[in-house]
Amino acid sequence: MTTINRRVVLVERPVGQALPHHFRVEDVELEPLGDGDVRVAVEFISVDAGTRTMLRGEGFHMQVGLGETILASGVGRVIESKADGFSVGDAVRGGLCAQTIATMPGNMLERVDDSLGPLSLHLGALGGSTGVTAWIGIRDVAKPGPGDDFVVSAAAGAVGSIAGQIAKLDGARVIGIAGGPDKCAHLVDTLGFDEAIDYKNDDVNARLRELCPDGVNVFYDNVGGPILDAVLDNIAMRSRVVICGAVSQYDDMDNVTGPSMYLRLAERQSTMEGFAYFHFPESIEPAKAELARWISDGTIVMPEDILDGIDRYPEALQFMFDGRNVGKLLVKAS
Ligand SMILES: NC(=O)c1ccc[n+]([C@@H]2O[C@H](COP(=O)([O-])OP(=O)(O)OC[C@H]3O[C@@H](n4cnc5c(N)ncnc54)[C@H](OP(=O)(O)O)[C@@H]3O)[C@@H](O)[C@H]2O)c1
Question: Which residues does the UniProt record annotate as the domain Enoyl reductase (ER) (predicted)?
Fold first, then answer.
């Protein structure tokens, strides 16, 4: 059995984009396992847009200290256990962090069903900050339905691609906003969206006027900034704007650019509401159950982009914030 854990630590707080030199990959000797603890060989580490906000040193999310291992959800298999209820070989998910071997109390881990497919599914389509967030954002907050023109931003990313597919299942006409012609083709051809807007090449405001002449009924925003403004300018009467996230703002959270078009909410008797998936704890299990059913019968798809090897974690946030991921971005640790 290995005696070494390879982990990624924060060495410098990023100003602007998080780049590889802000991180260090290092090997550390494993300590003997304590009572109640479980040792896990990490297979996949989730890369989340929200991780960028954990590197600032202060804020709404949990923070990573300098010299500490990067916080991240992960999945893997138990290789040693001194905790009741966990045996060698069990598939588990938890806050395993960016490392190859995680050691933590058993009560902070959850067992996952490995018969559903690769363990990565439990971070992507079935993951709390991905598929479950999309499900809760749609079913508990945005609630699109037949007759609605529904728009989602960062639509080819992890949360956006599932949110758009659920909105489509729930009867809405779905328009995705994403960067570049390939991603836009993917939204329509692979995910089954009705229309796509390429914010890097199109005039978003003009395209929204063309595609939604009666206005956008529901907007699921993952991006903020100028895209949020363009959609606010095009909302319908009694529409709903749902703030899931604002990835365009995370590199400079001290200077967040607020929406300048918010008075459209008053003019058009509309609402803007934010949420985090953990505000709806009662929805987490129903969300996972329905997502698992949809994934196994092919009703929805969740593409994955996998960076191979823990040594690639330091480039992962740059990869995401440059918009290079399609679907769920993961690092394969083992
Ligand atoms: N509320 C919650 O509980 C909750 C939970 C989890 C995640 N979230 C939010 O969900 C959103 C998506 O997160 P994710 O982890 O699934 O990431 P993701 O969508 O897989 O990746 C982020 C995507 O954002 C786009 N992007 C990056 N910089 C941008 C910019 N300046 N302007 C416009 N688009 C930009 C990129 O795609 P393009 O190529 O299209 O630019 C990139 O692929 C984030 O806002 C995150 O904070 C919220």
Answer: 18-331
Q: Are 152 and 222 in contact (CB under 8 A)?
A: yes
| Tokens read off for 74 | 């992960």
Distance 223 CA to ligand 1 centre (A): 6
Q: Which residue has the tokens 């497919």?
A: 117
Ligand 1 lined by 48 (C-beta under 6 Å): yes
Q: CA dihedral defined by 126, 128, 134, 136, rounded to 10 degrees?
A: 110
Q: Which atom of ligand 1 is nearest to the CA of 160?
A: 19
Report the distance separating Cα 177 and Cα 23, nearest Å: 31
- Residue whose Cα lies nearest atom 2 of ligand 1: it is 276
CA distances from 215 to 98, 130, 138, 177, 207 (A): 43, 28, 19, 15, 11
Burial (CB < 10 A; 0-12, 13-18, 19+), residue 57, is: exposed
Angstrom CA distances, 9 to 27, 113, 160, 251, 292, stand at 11, 30, 29, 19, 33
User: Residue 48 CB: number of other CB atoms within 10 A?
Assistant: 27
Tell me if 147 sits within 8 A of 170, measured CB to CB: no
Query: For the domain 128-278, what is the CATH superfamily, name and number?
Result: NAD(P)-binding Rossmann-like Domain (3.40.50.720)
pLDDT value of position 121 = 97
Residue of the nearest CA to atom 11 in ligand 1?
Answer: 222
204 in contact with ligand 1, CB cutoff 6 A: no
User: 154 in ligand 1 pocket by Cβ < 6 Å?
Assistant: yes
Q: For 229-251, how does the pLDDT look when each residue is reduced to its tens digit (9 = 90+)?
A: 999 999 999 999 999 999 999 99
Residues of the chain with pLDDT > 90, as a percent, come to 96
**Amino acid in the structure at residue 286:** P
Domain 4-122+303-332: CATH superfamily, name plus number: Medium-chain alcohol dehydrogenases, catalytic domain (3.90.180.10)
What does the domain layout of the chain look like in residue ranges?
Answer: 4-122+303-332, 128-278
Tell me how crowded residue 258 is: count the other CB atoms within 10 A of its CB. Answer: 11
